[in-house]
Amino acid sequence: MADTSGGHEGIRYDHGGDEFVYAEVSTAMSLPAHFTALAITRRLAEEAIPGVEEICPSNASYMVRVDPDRLHPRDLVRELQRIESEVGDRASADPSFTIDTRIVDVPIMLNDPWTHEVLMKFRDRHQDPDGTDLDYGARINGYDTTEAFIDALAGSPYLVTMMGFVPGLPWCFQLVPRDRQVEVPKYIRPRTETPERAFGFGGAFAVIYPVKGAGGYQLFGSAPAPIFDAAQEQPDFAENDSVVFFRHGDVINFRRVDEAGYDEVREQVAARQWRYRTSPVEFSPSRFLADPDGTNAAMLEGLYS
Amino acid sequence: MSILVHDPGLETTVQDTGRFGHYAIGFPPSGALDSFAYHVGNALVGNAPGAAALEAVYLGPTLEFTADTVIAVTGADIPATLDGEAIPLWESVAVRAGQTLAFGQLAGGARPYVAVAGGIDVPQVYGSRSTYTLVGMGGFAGRGLAEGDELTLGDDAVSPRAGRRLADDDVPVHPATAELRLLVGLHSYRLTPDSLERFTDTAWKVTPDANRVGYRYRGAELEFVPREQPFGAGSDPANVTDCGYPVGSVQVPGGVEPIVLLQDAVTGGGYATLGTVVSVDRDRLAQTKTGDRTRFVAVDLDEALTIRRDRAAQLDRIRSALA
After folding, report:
1. What region holds the Carboxyltransferase domain (chain B) (predicted)?
2. Which residues of B fall within a CB distance of 8 Å from A30?
């Protein structure tokens, strides 16, 4: 049984003004806490309660925007508590609870020149002004070499446990037991600059920044393929009629590429011929928690076979 | 029928009620920051309630109209002129083809709104005409207006007519110190009780970092309760495991700079959130500017809902009176 720490004792509900209800499953990130949030928000969406306007599952919590003119926020909390008692922790234990999703191959170049240039500009905001973000992450996570740290980062797939910040940004939580999960602090003060498609890490989460902008996560690399496409010029975005590529619940396998591999993808993007490689997955939280490495291996085989 | 932009002002954008249903993939609602001024503007010119209008900040735009129409200027206290002649605020005014709307110096508030009969006709993006400049989507070409732009007018006019006027009692005042009512909560337990008290006792000053994304304030230092950080949150005491952010929520990165997130804000992140400004009072906030003072007043959920109902009733009454 992996990842049972960081469990929870009941959900804490609170009101974010008159329009939002916040439900904190756990203060700490864990897969069981996330699966509980997922099971509840999924049921909430199925029930289509009038007055529920937005359902936002997040890492170890979730948020609902409510129209208080149609549904009293306290009545919403009562509905959520009812669903909690019906669904509860079932997601992590019940083999019949599964998520129909997909595994996605995402090329990534670690220790790339573009994020390196930016991160060097902001050393005064960093915990380790004399090193790089990767060296720092490797050291505080107990890796002997940066290369071994990179192997761990790209060694197992991740689950998209939250979408947002800006349109299309995926928060990715690595599908490994807790003792193998990486954790790094965010910058002491956020940067004013982050390159588009930068691969960052903060807390226990990997992200890809969809667009250029501010950011406070450690900068580890760069993704050559777009994850946000306002004009929907790339085929993946046109076909899905969406400006964002990722969906909550996607499984992402970050595949290491070198600079030549990076350039190759960029050329396909320039020719508007880039396609993400994906494979459908029926993800079972209970099966995963019982056998993380076996589940990951099976998903990867489905993706690359 | 169109509007020619001779001078865009500081940042003038097309806004409507906002973009909803996509928060979970990271789309903030956008939409007019001062919802009252926006809705009254549409009611004055006889538009359908969701018609798109222009929102400016600090400086008004200079706009030429190519055909006869009806406009209304609402929101900030700012002198407005048509071909140099002063026109009243909070009142619908007839405009003849070729006339130019211009603005003088801001006297109070921060954001004037220009409603035009028919509304601004830009394509709907994800269900809204609102501009979201951070990723360049919505509104006019995903950006603020620029000199030389030509805006087309829409067909959202129901009963355009000049001479409609908002009752004086309904015209908002812009006090020297704005009071923003908020529900304390979410991660307020992360702040020491002293600090939470200090938060509502302080007359916070609006910093230059104040825009449609959010407002930053300075005025006091707040402290977090020491704890061993939960796995996943990051090591700073201001960090929590990344979660969704309500619009109007207040964070205090570093303990020194409260930020109120507004309609163009990020939808989630990892800063502890101490509470949320009630939706109605985002209108007041939108009319404050750099250097202004702001106080936060704690209310409970029942009070927040009463404030919301009162505002809805007021808008209903105004719409009936102006119909």
Report:
1. 24-314
2. 231-232
